């Protein structure tokens, strides 16, 4: 390894730390580990969050370049209760990345035609080609969660799905498809979920997030807990494990998830090319008109 590569590798290690993505996670009901001087019970300051996020964003750009250069195919899916922070985490990941490389898929409820298809069929067109990362904001695990709890799927369909999902995912990550699959469950506690959903009721910026289904499912906390537990038991496999993350603190969970992604996908920091802007062409006989035949946006600010 050359001197330049060694320096880049050291910088990467300094940002990401020495984290093993396969390390066993704590039980969801247990205590979260303390990793720095801030207690997990104390909300992270916005200043510290933005400082840490900036460093991780740079590494995400390096990862993006590596994915494109090596033709990797990556699927990242997010599941969790309503208000767990899935959307905000996905925005934190993709904020500085190309939407042509990192694509977000958030499918609506299935159409009447889609309901008659093979269950996984509507997800297949969204799978990545070489050089792409697809992020599912909810996924085929709807069947084990909301569809089961809210009665949109029969128990026979649910049990069939729980048997099928590990086989489907084994096909995705197998040698003929070579997809890197990361499955994240964001776990929010009962009180924090209530606080977030109440905010959606009153804040006009967030009301679009509150669906009639959210209101119906709010009272079924323990039904979702039972469904989650059985889903983990049936679909947490060696080739497609689940990674659970506490999301009571939105800032912490975003940083933790990004860091975990970076540690889970091997990549190298590419060589940065030296870029200089070319000179502009001469105007010749062109003259800027005094006004253009268009309407203008009022300059209120």
Textual characterization of the structure:
- There is one protein chain.
- With 301 residues, the protein is of the alpha/beta class.
- It has one domain (44-111, 118-264): Rossmann fold.
- Helices cover 42% and strands 11% of the residues.
- It is built from ten helices and five strands.
- The chain has helices at residues 3-16, 46-70, 86-94, 112-115, 146-149, 155-173, 190-202, 212-218, 221-235, 250-264; strands spanning 73-80, 102-105, 132-137, 179-187, 242-246.
- It has a five-stranded parallel β-sheet, sandwiched between helices.
- 23% of the residues are buried.
SS strand fraction: 5-15%
* Number of structural units classed as domains: 1
What does the radius of gyration come to?
Answer: 23 Å
The biggest beta sheet is recorded as:
5 strands, parallel
Indicate the CATH architecture. Answer: 3-Layer(aba) Sandwich
CATH class: Alpha Beta
The shape is: globular
By secondary-structure content and strand pairing, the structural class works out as alpha/beta
- N to C succession of SSEs: HHEHEHEHHEHHHEH
Can you identify the CATH superfamily?
A: P-loop containing nucleotide triphosphate hydrolases
